[in-house]
Design brief:
Elements (H helix, E strand, L loop, with lengths): L5 H7 L5 E12 L2 H7 L1 H22 L3 E5 L3 E6 L2 H18 L11 E13 L2 E3 L1 H12 L5 E4 H7 L7 E7 L8 E6 L61 E4 L3 E2 L7 H16 L5 E2 L2 H4 L9 H8 L3 E10 L2 E10 L4 E11 L3 H15 L6 H7 L7 H14 L4 H17 L4 H17 L1 H4 L1 H17 L5 H13 L3 H14 L4 H13 L3 H14 L5 H13 L3 H14 L4 H14 L5 H12 L9 H4 L12 H13 L12 H5 L2 E4 L2 E4 L3 E3 L1 H9 L3 E4 L3 H6 L6 E2 L8 H7 L5 E5 L7 H11 L4 E5 L2 H7 L11
Parallel strand pairs: 4-6, 9-11, 9-12, 10-12, 17-21, 18-19, 18-20, 20-21
Antiparallel strand pairs: 1-3, 1-4, 2-3, 4-5, 6-8, 7-8, 12-13, 13-14, 15-16
């Protein structure tokens, strides 16, 4: 005969299994681990005293039998649900009365849950959902409280005088069906707290749609996890608590039957974070840090201590067809109790109103106020199309993964959103963001993709800024800063921060601008603020911090920070250049050659030049033509001290040729040259004017105009090499890889200083040539 376990007999409906209908009381000590850690002997002594003097006498009085003890909890069986509930109430009251003179942090507090259900008897043990439901209710109960199931409630009617408050159907761990749940009110008074709910958005036509809301005060929602009510400790906080209410929003669980709806739950969570971030009176942890806990078993006090906040918001989203259910609870981690919990049901068309309900509850619970500007912002409608919002969330789910493939997947969803609502500012900003990422991610490999991406960035930013939002201003600031228009960029990022003061990326963007304009101490403060809002910050934050330290001549700190950066992200070549420069200023020789080789290993295969002092004065984490001169020279001095090669064509100084160059809207203009487009370049080239392509040999070999001469501006172009290819009296065209590329501009300006008289600047370069469908060669030409 095969061996069959007790659980298998129970699930198989074995006729020999003994069953009975009983009332189960589950009991658990709140914060048991903390109490033991703080005072093991005292806690154990207090537990023994309570058991002997309170629990055992009351269990005997109400005919309860202890089924099992579990260290910090117990399962107790009663023949009557009335006895179970009255016993639990008496236990809680006597435990509280005995500890009034004990400091709150040293008290033993209990959570309790009662269920009436069918159980399987296995010797002295009880098994099955009848026990499990009681245990789950206990786990979601607040300190000192008692929850009872719907089956228990039905048998209590008319038999107890204490009021029982319905708090909704709770979805609890490992129980497939929702559990109808009630709170026992020990004092006989129903709660009277009222929330003043403010709408954060005005939805126009959406406001007219009917809402189906089932809202109950303090409903504690447990999705697939259970929340510990243990208290957080200020002493254990990884970061100091802010001087205003601080909150972290954990990723809401997707309880939809379709796991593909996870994007919707994530998007809802992110929107709640964004809406809270707009309130200057609340400190909000960034999405990046809270989503680090997604799918992981966590305790509220652990999250609060690791992120340095007092309040935690958690919940779940269920979407079935057109219906949406949001469950949320706000927990005071320091107090170890819930401020509120509720459930919100409605149609997809009401989604923004449901979100506003949640935000309104938080604002009310934390007793904060809106500023006049925040009130005005909250009245702006985002979109009148729920379908457009859904498409945007799907696109954002791909975009946040921060890779080329995922970015390309995101764009069609954003395009769908603007097709459904052409005035959807946030969707246009998302399209600008996606295309900006394409434009700056890989200049060489993108080639004409860069040009087209920038055109889409400009187009969608213009549309987004008709109804400005923080993202639109932030992307505008990034574009302007990359073009060297730092004053305009600073104005844009300030507008973005005014709309979303808690967004860490805004602080980081501002820090980059401050670094570029000679304000490194201020930049370092902005980075530190970004790190506080996003304690699980990515390597980019450390990178900007290292640059701020470097510009303040804190070379040792900069080197240490950069070593942390490359340990986490090793594919950004400029990091190694900055590290080498730091070593140069410190007089270090160890590690210099190693980091030069790492730079070259990344740059050369991608079509860039090996590390040189000259090129680092042109490009360093992007174009630095308008970068603060002192900071730029400091970088080059460190490289020089470290022994980095200077580069080609350095018989003239940077000031001699750069003085001929200016920039407008990101494009280079060179005084003394003729700027030409692709058709003009083609006509000149056809009549024999020599075209000098100043890209690297690798990029040149991938494609170039027939008969073009390759003289890399970084490695080869010098007075003598150019003179061998073209006489000073001849016409010459300089070209590189696009209108935002400075290589051909620097080459043209150098040629003028060297005495070449007929210089054409083909700003569009090879991308414009290729886009015009002119002939192309792919084999390198000498």
């Amino acid at each position: 005969m095969a061996f069959v376990t007790s659980l298998e007999r129970m699930t198989m409906g074995d006729d020999h299994a003994e069953r009975r209908l009983v009332a189960i009381l589950a009991v658990d000590i709140v914060g048991y681990s903390r109490l033991i850690e703080d005072n093991e002997a005292g806690t154990l002594a207090a537990m023994r005293a309570l058991r002997a003097e309170v629990f055992d006498p009351l269990l005997a009085e109400y005919h309860g039998r202890t089924v099992k003890l579990m260290g910090d909890g117990a399962i107790i069986e009663f023949g009557s649900v009335v006895d179970a509930v009255l016993c639990a109430v008496a236990l809680q009251k006597q435990v509280a009365a005995r500890q009034v003179d004990i400091l709150p942090q040293h008290r033993l507090l209990f959570r309790m849950g009662v269920n009436l259900g069918d159980v399987v008897v296995e010797g002295d043990d009880l098994l099955g959902d009848g026990v499990n439901v009681a245990a789950r209710l206990e786990q979601i109960c607040e300190s000192g409280g008692l929850f009872v199931s719907g089956t228990a409630f039905d048998h209590l009617q008319g038999k107890v005088e204490l009021p029982l408050e319905f708090i909704g159907e709770q979805h609890v761990k490992n129980i497939a069906r929702p559990v109808r749940t009630y709170r026992v009110l020990f004092d006989g008074n129903a709660p009277s707290r009222r929330f003043n709910i403010r709408r954060l958005r005005s939805r126009g036509a959406l406001a007219a749609l009917a809402m189906v809301l089932v809202a109950a005060f303090a409903a504690i929602w447990l999705s697939p996890w259970t929340t510990s009510a243990e208290t957080a400790s200020i002493a254990r906080m990884a970061l100091p608590l802010p001087d205003k209410p601080s909150i972290a929003v954990l990723p809401f669980d997707n309880l939809s039957s379709d796991p593909e709806q996870a994007y919707f739950a994530d998007g809802m969570t992110e929107d709640l974070i964004t809406d809270l971030s707009k309130l200057s009176s609340i400190f909000v942890i960034a999405r990046n840090s809270t989503f680090a806990y997604k799918g992981k078993p966590t305790k509220v006090q652990q999250v609060a201590e690791e992120l340095g906040v007092r309040y935690i918001l958690e919940g779940s989203v269920r979407r079935q067809g057109d219906q949406v259910r949001i469950n949320a609870q706000l927990i005071d981690a320091l107090g170890g109790h819930h401020l509120w919990a509720d459930r919100y049901d409605g149609a997809m068309g009401d989604i923004f109103a449901l979100q506003d309900k949640v935000i309104g509850e938080i604002v009310s619970a934390l007793t904060v106020e809106f500023t006049i500007a925040e009130q005005a912002q909250s009245k702006q409608a985002e979109t009148s199309s729920p379908q457009a919002y859904d498409a945007l969330l799907q696109g954002w789910d791909h975009l946040r993964r921060d890779s080329e493939d995922e970015t390309l997947k995101a764009i069609p969803y954003f395009e769908k959103a603007v097709a459904l609502d052409p005035d959807y500012s946030r969707a246009h900003a998302a399209l600008a963001s996606a295309n900006w990422r394409i434009a700056v991610s890989n200049w060489e490999a993108a080639n004409i993709g860069f040009e087209k991406a920038m055109e889409r960035v400009d187009r969608h930013l213009a549309l987004a800024l008709r109804k400005p939002n923080s993202l639109a201003y932030a992307i505008s600031a990034e574009v302007l800063a990359r073009q060297g228009q730092y004053a305009e960029a600073f104005a844009k990022i300030s507008r973005a921060m005014g709309l979303d003061p808690n967004d860490p990326e805004n602080h980081l963007s501002k820090a980059r601008i401050l670094n570029a304009t000679g304000q490194a101490p201020e930049a370092e403060r902005e980075v530190q603020q970004a790190m506080r809002v996003d304690p699980q910050y990515p390597p980019s934050y450390l990178r900007v911090l290292a640059i701020s330290q470097f510009h303040q001549e804190k070379y040792r700190d900069a080197a240490k920070t950069l070593e942390r950066v490359v340990a986490r992200q090793s594919d950004v070549s400029e990091d190694y250049a900055t590290l080498v420069s730091s070593f140069g200023h410190l007089g270090r020789t160890d590690g210099v050659q190693e980091n030069i080789e790492k730079y070259n290993a990344l740059a050369v295969p991608a079509g860039y030049s090996p590390l040189t002092v000259q090129e680092s004065g042109w490009y360093w984490y992007g174009d630095i033509f308008n970068y603060d001169r002192t900071y730029r020279e400091r970088l080059q001095q460190g490289l020089r001290k470290a022994g980095v090669p200077e580069g080609a064509g350095i018989d003239i100084s940077y000031d001699d040729y750069a003085s001929l160059i200016s920039k407008s809207n990101g494009e280079y203009n060179i005084k003394g040259t003729t700027k030409i487009d692709a058709p003009t370049a083609k006509r000149l080239h056809d009549r024999g004017v020599k075209l000098v392509d100043v890209r690297t040999a690798l990029s040149f070999g991938r494609g170039h105009a027939p008969g073009a001469i390759n003289l890399s501006v970084v490695e080869v172009l010098a007075k003598d090499t150019l003179s061998k290819a073209v006489s000073r009296e001849e016409e010459v065209i300089f070209s590189c890889h696009g209108k935002y590329c400075g290589d051909s501009a620097y080459a043209s300006a150098k040629a003028l200083v060297w005495g070449f008289k007929n210089v054409y600047h083909f700003a569009g370069g090879f991308p414009a040539w290729e886009d015009a469908h002119y002939p192309i060669e792919t084999a390198p030409t000498e």
